[in-house]
């Protein structure tokens, strides 16, 4: 069994390097933001730009230089040594549709997995200048647009009827999933749309209470786990199971355990 102190020190080092990577990604993506970039369509019909590819290439190079034995799984360039004990999971531009339309809520996501379990997660918002950093066993840290850092906490919302719920887009759901989302979200006090990775940061900082999404990939959700959990929230799949590389892309992030439990039960009833 690994020494807990050594593990904590290792995660602190990884989180520090993740911050360096996020700084680099921020500068790169902003060079292309609101400029006329070519847009390609991937096999899944999602858009991709030179910014997505170049940011991931730069991050991969830096990780390989610093940690040559670590694995990497990125949205644009796939898997490399993902059987390694430590694997970096990268979404260079989460919210490419936002990015190409000039909407400043796109982000960069970085997760570090230890034996398949997210140990470090970073949500960075390049244009807004905000960042959330989660580390297993430590409080989530929020950095504002002025560079001031402090710990953050989810809101104490325990009932779905009192919750503000977000999802990025109803277009992300299939027909059955949209019926479930409609049924569950209509029970909340308020529901809103849009935000990509930003909405998970807003849960961690106590501004909204619940996120329900589907159609996500591992690089879309694995960074969220240390951020949400370190702020006091709960994040799982729609069945209440922990998120892994093999999860089906349906995600619930809730401010409290009570709200999470009620939401999972409501999803189960809507699915039955």
From TrEMBL:
Its EC number is 3.1.3.15. The keyword Cytoplasm does not apply. GO terms for molecular function: histidinol-phosphatase activity; metal ion binding. The keyword Metal-binding applies. CDD domains: Bacterial_IMPase_like_1 (cd01641). Keywords: Amino-acid biosynthesis, Histidine biosynthesis, Hydrolase, Magnesium, Metal-binding. GO terms for biological process: L-histidine biosynthetic process. Gene3D superfamilies: 3.40.190.80, Fructose-1,6-Bisphosphatase, subunit A, domain 1. Its cofactor is Mg(2+). InterPro entries: His_9_proposed (IPR011809), Inositol_monoP_metal-BS (IPR020583), Inositol_monoP_superfamily (IPR051090), Inositol_monophosphatase-like (IPR000760). Mg(2+) 1 binds at residues 75, 91, 94. It is an enzyme of class 3 (hydrolase). It catalyses: L-histidinol phosphate + H2O = L-histidinol + phosphate. Mg(2+) 2 binds at residues 93, 220. Pathway: Amino-acid biosynthesis; L-histidine biosynthesis; L-histidine from 5-phospho-alpha-D-ribose 1-diphosphate: step 8/9. It comes from the Bacteria. Belongs to the inositol monophosphatase superfamily. NCBIfam families: his_9_HisN. This is Histidinol-phosphatase. It comes from Azospirillum lipoferum. The gene is hisN.
């Amino acid at each position: 069994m690994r020494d807990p102190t050594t593990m904590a020190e290792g995660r602190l080092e990884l989180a520090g390097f993740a911050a360096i990577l996020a700084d680099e990604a921020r500068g790169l993506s902003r060079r292309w933001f609101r400029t006329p970039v070519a847009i390609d369509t991937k096999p899944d019909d999602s858009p991709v730009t030179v910014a997505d590819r170049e940011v991931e290439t730069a991050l991969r190079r830096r990780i390989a230089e610093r940690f040559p034995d670590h694995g990497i799984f990125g949205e644009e360039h796939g898997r490399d040594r993902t059987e390694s004990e430590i694997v970096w999971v990268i979404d260079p531009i989460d919210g490419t549709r936002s990015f190409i339309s000039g909407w400043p809520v796109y982000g960069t996501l970085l997760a570090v997995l230890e034996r398949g379990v997210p140990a470090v997660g970073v949500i960075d918002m390049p244009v807004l200048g905000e960042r959330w950093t989660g580390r297993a066993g430590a409080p989530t840290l929020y950095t504002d647009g002025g560079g001031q850092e402090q710990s953050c906490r989810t809101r104490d919302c325990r009932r779905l009827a009192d919750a503000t719920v977000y999802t990025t887009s109803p277009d992300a759901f299939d027909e059955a999933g949209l019926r479930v989302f409609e049924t569950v979200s209509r029970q909340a006090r308020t529901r809103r749309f849009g935000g990509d990775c930003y909405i998970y940061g807003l849960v961690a900082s106590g501004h909204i209470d619940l996120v329900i999404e589907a159609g996500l990939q591992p690089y879309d959700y694995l960074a969220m786990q240390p951020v949400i959990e370190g702020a006091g929230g709960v994040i799982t799949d729609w069945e209440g199971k922990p998120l892994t590389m093999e999860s089906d892309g349906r995600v619930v992030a809730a401010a409290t355990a009570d709200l999470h439990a009620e939401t999972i039960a409501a999803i189960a009833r809507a699915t039955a």
